[in-house]
Design goal:
homodimer; alpha/beta; six-stranded parallel beta sheet; two-stranded antiparallel ribbon; EC 2.4.2.21 (chains A, B); cobalamin biosynthesis (chains A, B); glycosyltransferase (chains A, B); Nict_dMeBzImd_PRibTrfase_sf (chains A, B)
Chain lengths: 344, 344
């Protein structure tokens, strides 16, 4: 981000017709957006949510409340024709409301998905390996998923996206997200492992054991972030990392939804610390460990809705707040322009 | 609100393609919106913010960081032609971003405002009397301001508003808002009196003393809410009360911004408890006492941006979240419709 532009933006915020600081966190966000877009009066417009789907070998261990067949069924739901338009999932309904465009990618679903004009076929393999017993992905598979995500982000930006929301769907994917978070943050498994879609106590205990076993394998070290990603896996997590890296490289803002997105961001900032300048946190999600991710990323969440759905829903909900923050910096008059007396 | 419809909406939320409860507070909001609009698949569309401006005799006591001349100057700013459209204040910039319509009313500014095609001239008197020493308004003036607010809400609803955001501008108006809150909630002055636009410690102490004096006068009792409103005043507060009463009577949703709006809502639910069914809290604002207002109203704020600007800004920012909540209930497919397996 551009420090000089941010300084100009900060100075401009202080001259706008409102009590200093009265827009709270929106003022900080507006200044960060100025840095991202390289102008003290940023004008982001298009919003894109990229929903990457992938399956997880670790579901064989019984770590989720839902069967893995839900992943392909939800992909079909993202694409379904409904009376309201394309897509019958939460992310579709919310995206239609706020004017965001939805991209759906198969990053590695364990099923033969029928071809669909709106489905980006980018499957690297039919789900990951079981991370409890072996590396979930090879380095080559991991890189391919990252590149596929970057390619779709490039397309979305070409289509007009200024705000990119990485989203995900993958039954079992809070397990790799927790494993990645434990390793990258150096935290205990229990501190970053929650109920995901809503598992019971017995399943939660098993999930923690599975993750502990995965971390005890002769595996990866935090100093090798792509190695951690391959070891603990998640094709859609790797795909989202690619979305983030491309978005940052093209100076677009990235809105983080929940815990799984956060795990991709942890890999991202370890690879490229400057990525952090492009990240904005939507809300604090209900999944344990999300707060630790955000603290590490230095991000303050905007809302507290207790979301724990994924799909990028929180990021899409946050988009109007980000666009509004930019609008205050861009469109408000200064005290001088409006001839409003200043305070003491 | 319609209890049977809310029951249907709650049942429908449980069948939608997502883990139960994973949309958090949005699910409760969607069910309440179903009750407001009388259908389990509510479809609110238009958003209107009604910014009422008024002045306050109590500014003679030096309770604000800004001179009273700011009130008419900000009204001019709400109406100013800018390169971005009509209005150069924060509420204008945010409303343009989220597609809300802005109505501006003179409810009692202490100035001769030039006529403007977009200014609703509804001034009852040129500011209130000084509430420290006498009743701020007569009962007749109070009623006239309430009726004027109701009339403008009627217009906004006629123009298509389903979500109404009462907003305000009035230098000194956190003083009557604090006085009203102290009386209606039975709380100490210190618990509901903050820095408003940002007064220093000396001014804050004086502001509290002024409010204490006002409450010690032979004045109003909480059992007579319109009496409290007249006694402690605020023409724009009375105007916003009228907006709320009319919106509720026409079964529209009301989005509450900050502390001054909250004081009008306290009068409102004391007059007509059913009004509470139509109220939705945007965020928790930084002004002390707002949390106590929301607790009394039984409302959970959606975001935590630390706003303390007023003008209805927070309510407008919250509008996309409310519209999105309704959209999930309306547009998402059920597990059965989407052939998605349910969890255990």
């Amino acid at each position: 981000a551009d420090a000089e532009v941010m300084q100009q933006a900060r100075a401009r915020q202080a001259q706008l017709t409102k009590p200093a600081g009265s827009l709270g966190l929106l003022e900080d966000i507006s200044v960060r957006l100025a840095g991202v877009f390289g102008t003290p009066q940023p004008h982001p417009r298009g919003v894109a949510v990229i929903v990457a789907a992938g399956d997880h070998g670790v579901t064989a261990e019984g770590v989720s409340a839902y069967p893995p067949e839900v992943t392909p069924a939800m992909v079909a739901n993202f694409l379904a024709e409904t009376p309201w338009g394309s897509g019958g999932a939460a992310v579709n309904a919310i995206a239609r409301t706020v004017g965001a465009r939805v991209y759906v990618a198969d990053a590695g679903v364990n099923a033969d998905l029928p071809a669909h004009p709106r489905l980006v076929a980018a499957s690297i393999r039919r789900g990951t390996r079981n991370l409890r017993v072996e590396a979930a992905l090879t380095p080559e598979e991991t890189e391919a998923a990252v590149l596929a995500g970057a390619a779709l982000a490039r397309q979305a930006i070409h289509d007009g996206a200024d705000l990119l929301v990485p989203g995900e769907m993958g039954i079992g994917n809070t397990t790799p997200a927790s494993a990645i978070s434990a390793r990258m943050l150096g935290l205990d498994v229990a501190a970053v492992t929650g109920r995901g879609t809503g598992v019971d106590d017995v399943t939660l205990a098993r999930k923690r054991e599975v993750i502990s076993d995965a971390l005890k394998r002769q595996g990866s070290a935090a100093a090798d972030p792509l190695g951690v990603l391959a070891d603990l896996g998640g094709l859609e997590i790797a795909f989202m990392l690619g979305v983030m890296l491309e978005a940052a490289a093209q100076r677009r803002a990235i809105v983080l939804d929940g815990f799984v997105e956060g795990s991709a961001a942890l890999i991202g900032v370890a690879l490229a610390p400057a990525l952090g300048d492009y990240l904005f946190a939507a809300g604090e999600c209900a999944e344990i460990g999300h707060a630790a991710q955000l603290a590490h990323l230095g991000l303050t969440p905007m809302f507290r809705l207790g979301l724990r759905l994924g799909e990028g829903t929180g990021g899409v909900l946050a988009a109007p707040l980000l666009l509004s923050a930019a609008a205050t910096l861009r469109e408000m008059q200064t005290f001088a322009e409006a001839s409003v007396p200043e305070g003491n």
